[in-house]
Specification:
Elements: E1 4-17, E2 20-33, E3 37-41, H1 48-55, E4 63-68, E5 71-72, H2 78-88, E6 89-93, H3 104-113, H4 123-133, H5 149-161, E7 167-171, H6 179-194, E8 199-203, H7 206-209, E9 214-219, E10 222-228, H8 235-248
């Protein structure tokens, strides 16, 4: 098994607009090992969203190399990139991206329907197992409108998990949630990471990044900081402390 899930070398991305060009990434060297929980931080225009799109195989770099779980992906065509996304990456988005008139179970089954391997699998059982991992085994027949924001994000996380990907890529996953629900979602991410799941989380919030084990800060298209989180926050402990304060009040 390849122990390096993400490996980039001098990655660049330039956008052309008529006679003008904008270099969004300027030589990114990044390595993420299996089982890490990395937060990528940066302000608007820093390049973090472009980096996320490249890491997620949603876009290709202008130059440089990118290896995802041992596969060189920088020069793959659109169909090959789609296959890699389905096989190697589980996505979690800020807006949940659930189909509105579709049950939690059916939403989680969706990535399995795009599998081109030809291997027969019990997609229902796999989806139920993924929902049970995120604490929603009793909500499999509920549609998004019948679920809270936090529960919808848990469905989205279950959908990301169902293909057993090499990497969970979460883009501002707490952006649409209140403070307590955000901490609940981060507690789930910490629990999944403790089971060995590799997570890369993109956020602009330092409080959310503090739940990861490592922070990579992007500024002006370059990595300006890459270090372990010194005082890592424990989401489960934060929730317990909040509950105790409420009880005391």
């Amino acid at each position: 098994m390849n122990e390096t899930v993400i490996q980039t070398h001098t990655l660049t991305k330039t956008y052309e607009s008529g006679a003008n060009s904008v270099q969004a990434l300027k030589g990114i060297d990044l390595s993420v090992r299996r089982g890490e929980f990395v937060a990528i931080m940066g302000t608007s225009g820093s390049g973090k969203s472009t980096l996320m799109n490249v890491l997620g195989c949603l876009d290709t770099p202008t130059s440089g190399s990118y290896s995802l779980d041992g596969v060189q992906v920088e020069s793959l065509d659109r169909n090959a990139l789609a296959a890699i996304r389905n096989q190697k990456i589980g996505f979690v988005f800020q807006g949940f991206n659930l189909l509105p008139r579709t049950t939690a179970l059916e939403n989680v089954q969706l990535p399995l329907l795009y599998d081109r391997s030809g291997v027969k699998r019990d997609t229902r059982a796999m989806a139920v197992a993924a929902l049970e991992k995120v604490g929603l085994g009793g909500r499999i027949d509920h549609e998004p409108s019948e679920l809270s924001g936090g529960q919808q994000q848990r469905v989205a996380i279950a959908r990301a998990l169902v293909t057993d990907p090499a990497l969970i890529l979460a883009d501002e996953p707490t952006g649409n949630l209140d403070t307590r629900t955000s901490v609940e979602v981060m507690a789930l991410f910490q629990e999944l990471n403790a089971r060995g799941i590799t997570i890369v989380l993109v956020t602009h919030e330092p409080d959310i990044a503090a739940y990861a084990t490592r922070i990579v800060e992007v500024r002006d298209g370059r990595i300006r900081r890459d270090e372990a989180v010194k005082n890592r926050r424990d989401a489960a402990a934060d929730l317990l402390s909040e509950d105790q304060e409420r009880s005391a009040a």
